[in-house]
Amino acid sequence: MSAVMKDEVQEDAFPAPLPEIAADLPLSGATVQAGDTNQAVFDLFDQRADVSALVVEEQGKPIGLINRNIFNGNYAKPFHRELYSRKSCIAFMDKSPLMIPDHTPIYEVAARAAEIGAKVVNDGFIITKDGHTVGLVNGVTLLRTMASLQEAQHKHLMSSIHYASTIQKALLSDSRRAIDIVLGEHAALVWEPRDIVGGDCFFGRAVSGGLLAGLVDCTGHGVPGAFLTSIAVSELNRLTAHGECFDPGVLLTGLNERVKSSLNQKVDDDSTFEEADDGMDAVFAFIDLPNRRMKLSSAKLPMFVQAPSGEFTVIKGERKGIGYRNTPLDQKWATHDVALEPGMRLFLATDGVSDQIGHVKKIAFGWERFKVSVTAAKDVAPATIAAQFMRAYEDYQGTQMRRDDVTMLCIEFTSEMLNEGNQS
After folding, report:
1. Which of 15, 121, 213, 217 has the most CB within a 10 Å radius?
2. pTM for this one?
3. Quick check: 296 and 304 in contact, CB under 8 A?
């Protein structure tokens, strides 16, 4: 492990601060006076290979700019040296260069430079203070500065997002632990946010002899979606804190009320809606191992039950999502009751699974391919099923950009699990 001693300083340990205003930009070029001749300008360019442009001043105030290449091109024309060598250098200057006050914010500088375009990159621009010349900034210098600022902001943003990911994972840790404790190797969870943090989350709460488990797919992905997942997890914890709301349909009804209240997405006294229209799709299962029953309910997401024979049953979710403006405050969700049998499997997934566009075929992965991918191998553990699903999914995606967050929960019910649950 390397270390930095007190009397040692790494070269980049204290990087130079990035410019915030025009006055912070490094200066280049040189200055000539309006009375200087073109021959004097030619000589200066000849002596100073580093100077690409000159500021022309009159009584300390900038009045124009001379570009090296343009000047030399004009001065080299036939008879121009003879005609113009003793004349004022204003003959070949740009009379309307970009001039920026020294206190101008750096992003406003970039915006004004972008409006003018290539001319600023080639000639640079003049920084002034109280109307007097401060210096000349090379156009390439501005480009490099903006690139450095963008890189610094990107690093800061990514650092914040990575830290937010740590927080999001911490919020979900209790749910993951509950699923692991109750189901162990009989369950496998895939949770892949598209943008480090995401709008998908999962939930789990252990109860005597059973488990309440579900997936939530919030509006959007990335940071906005992650904010909504924090609301979802918080409200789910409140709804289930005292051993209540373990009927998935009742749970979704309670979640809808709380999300609409949290986001202020209710009809007000004037029967008008607030501007926001955010919410979530959700699917929940209450696994009652002692009684060998499973209760299912869903807002918009399908539920897949695979019988021991291998036959798939798709239970469609209700069409209303959770918390949206057009979802009534008193919306009810149906609960489906399923008898558990040894060898049965349950699959829950968010629509990031079905909506992914393929590389070869520019169509969605779809739920049929999902069903094929999770039944491709027989008599394998849920972890293997999850892995083969992700291989099929990623192969289908190919070089296409990931479209959404992806979450999938696979649960297998074995004789051993059901017998243990019956004894607890």
Report:
1. 217
2. 0.79
3. no
Query: Which of 57, 51, 11 is closest to 34 using CA atoms?
Result: 57
For the chain, percent of residues with pLDDT exceeding 70: 93
The sign of the CA dihedral 193, 196, 201, 205 is positive
Task: Read off the amino acid at residue 335.
Answer: T
Distance CA 212, CA 348 (A): 13
Question: Alpha-carbon distance 424 to 232, whole Å?
Answer: 31
Q: What is the pLDDT of residues 99-127, one digit of tens each?
A: 999 999 999 999 999 898 888 888 899 99
> Which residues have CB under 8 Å from 390's CB, separation 6+?
190
Element (H, E) at 176: helix 139-183
Give the tens place of pLDDT for each residue, 205-260. Answer: 998 779 999 999 999 888 999 999 999 999 999 999 887 678 999 999 999 999 99
Of the chain, the end-to-end C-alpha distance in Å amounts to 51
